Amino acid sequence: MKYRQSTLGIVVRFAMIFALIISFAATSMAAGNVKKGKRKYDEFCTPCHGKNGQGDGTRMLVEKFDPAPRNHTDGKYMNKRTDVQLFKVVREGGKSQNFSHIMPQWKHILKEKDVWNIVAYIRSLAVNPAWSGQPDPPDVKK
Ligand code: HEC
Q: Ligand 1 test: best mutation among 48, 78, 116, 123, most atoms within 8 Å of CB?
């Protein structure tokens, strides 16, 4: 009985380790890690792009950038952009991709992997292509 129990214990432990390895492998195979991307985005991008990615960060409110930092929740626009296009804007800066020079270049600060994680996070902000990112107009009350 004792022998059977410990055998079962070993099998269970192996199964758990196996499951762990598989889940690590699956995570590292994905293009970007949304959670890690959010962490970097919160640190570097929210001053301009806003804490929810709507282009209304505190720096934007003070400096009134024109054009305004992109609203990353605007699915109508954002979902037309490819991952590679977003990656390039972030790495090389707005100017290099014919956008505003106000959008900084991040390649000296963020690793390639960080940028892919950020792209994955940005993707998670604009999931509905039909949604403009703007709240619905309030109902007209009589
Ligand atoms: C100093 C303010 C500022 C900061 C900081 C900033 N951005 Fe921007 N960003 C902008 C502005 C302004 C634009 C709009 C450029 C335009 O429309 O020409 C923009 C545009 C973008 C776009 C849209 C590109 C496209 O395809 O239309 C992406 C993606 C982006 N920023 C990502 C980031 C990320 C990621 C960070 C942080 C690592 C970041 N930005 C930090 C100002 C900023």
A: 48
